[in-house]
Design goal:
It is a single chain. The chain is α+β, with helices and mostly antiparallel strands. The protein has three helices and two strands, in the order H-H-E-E-H. The protein has one domain. Strands 1-2 form a two-stranded antiparallel sheet. The chain is globular and about 30 Å long.
Length: about 60
């Protein structure tokens, strides 16, 4: 996800607020290609709810 989508996904009010927390509460982007930075949903999920297992639907 882009920074804008990641910010919304994490419940941040602005992209800037999300980016200020990257490397602290949120992970670094997984894809770094020039100016392009992308975060994986699984990485963000782990940061948002640590200790919660992955997709429960996978276990069914």
């Amino acid at each position: 996800m882009s920074a804008a989508l990641s910010a919304g996904y994490c419940g941040e009010s602005t992209i800037e607020a999300f980016l200020q927390r990257v490397g602290k509460e949120y992970p670094q982007p997984r894809v770094l290609e020039g100016r392009r930075k992308l975060w994986l949903r699984d990485d963000l999920d782990a940061a948002i709810a640590p200790g919660v297992p992955g997709d429960i639907a996978e276990d069914l």
